[in-house]
Amino acid sequence: MADIEAQNDSNKPRQLPGHLLKQARERLGLAQKDIASQLNLQLETIDALENDDRDRLPVAAYVRGYLRSYARLVKLNADMLVGLYEQDSAATPEIIPNIVKPTQVSSRDKPVRAITYLVTFILALLLLAWLQNKYIAEKNSTAVKDNTTAEEHLPLPGPPPRPETTTTAEKQNVQSVAPEGPLSLPPGGAEVTESILTETETQDMPAVETDLHGASPIGPEQITEQLTTAEDKLQFTVTRDSWIEVYDANKIKMYQGLARAGDDVKLAGRAPFSVLLGFAPGVAVRFNNDIFDTTPYTNAGIARFTLSAADTR
Question: What would the CATH number be for the domain defined by 2-88?
Answer without folding.
Answer: 1.10.260.40
